[in-house]
Write a structure and sequence with these properties.
single chain; alpha+beta; Alpha-Beta Plaits; 2 domains; 4-stranded antiparallel β-sheet; about 15% strand
Length: about 290
């Protein structure tokens, strides 16, 4: 095993352990003692706990086992083993760590319970495991339907929240929705980071000047596509060959790039899209990357 892979395994382990501790904190310090719910598999475990008063540690394992088995076949056995160990670790944390109850204020519980829950699940995902197995179920359903993963997860949670509204009341269900929304935003923040990458496409008649400025002044790598511009309504038959420039940067750099492009061509066409993950090439390293 190389030094690089050993370092990655240690990093994944620390991410997973941190995630487990944060999820345990969210459950025992905010949600469970105040009879709150969340979405996803964690929400199912909480709903069963509130209905039948079974130990939450046991329910966390019981509810995640089917998704761990799915993960073995859909993703890979390494992911399934990591997830199983993470879920067992969470059960142990819930059983043996005496987290204090922080507050009984419902709004604070929803906000900070969701924040810490999302933080923990996101760190677990960074460590290569799923502390909440709903994403695995979404991947499984995705292959058998025309829905996106987001639509599948939303549909599953709508059913869960309806059961919560019927069994525990509409107010409880509404707070559960708020907790889940905040948790998902926290997960996105942990996974994508503050410096999420943005893909930028530039179409301009002055593409040579812009190309040089982006590379030499901003130090960015670019990809060039060969295309044509023109095809306007009043002159559809008129077109011109052009270089279409594409580059990736953090969202903090987009404003500087736009100003640089408009300096060379005030009529340049610029559009952006969010990049979920990027590696290699000429990218600004995030803090902590090596």
């Amino acid at each position: 095993m190389s030094f690089h892979s050993t370092k990655e395994n240690i990093q994944d382990f620390l991410y997973a352990v941190s995630g487990i501790l944060f999820v345990g904190f969210a459950l025992k310090s905010f949600l469970v003692p105040n009879h709150f719910l969340d979405g996803g598999v964690t929400g199912v475990a909480l709903l069963i706990h509130e209905t039948y008063h079974l130990p939450i540690a046991v329910l966390v394992i019981f509810c995640n086992v089917p998704f761990i088995i799915m993960g073995w076949f859909i993703i890979n056995k390494n992911f399934a083993i990591r997830t199983l160990l993470a879920v067992i670790g969470l059960a142990l944390v819930l059983s043996f760590i005496p987290y204090p109850v922080i507050t009984s204020d419902k709004l604070l519980i929803s906000i900070f319970g969701g924040v810490f829950l999302g933080l923990g699940i996101g760190l677990g995902m960074r460590g290569g495991c799923a502390i909440d197995g709903i994403e695995v179920l979404a991947l499984y359903t995705l292959k058998r339907s025309g829905f996106t993963i987001s639509e599948i997860i939303l549909g599953i949670n709508i059913i869960l929240f309806l059961f919560a509204a019927i069994g525990l009341g509409i107010v409880t269900a509404l707070y559960a929705m708020l907790t889940y929304f905040i948790a998902t935003r926290s997960i996105d923040y942990v996974i994508e980071g503050l410096e999420e990458y943005i893909g930028v496409t530039i179409i301009s008649k002055n593409h040579e000047e812009i190309k040089k400025a982006v590379v030499m002044q901003m130090g960015k790598g670019i990809t060039v596509y060969k295309g044509e511009r023109g095809f306007m309504k009043d002159s559809f038959e008129v077109s011109h060959p052009t270089d279409i420039l594409y580059t990736i940067m953090t969202r903090f750099e987009v404003r500087r790039l736009r100003n640089l492009v408009l300096k060379h061509d005030t009529k340049a066409f610029i559009f952006t899209n969010i990049i979920k993950e990027a590696a290699g090439g000429v990218l600004l390293k995030r803090k902590g990357d090596h």
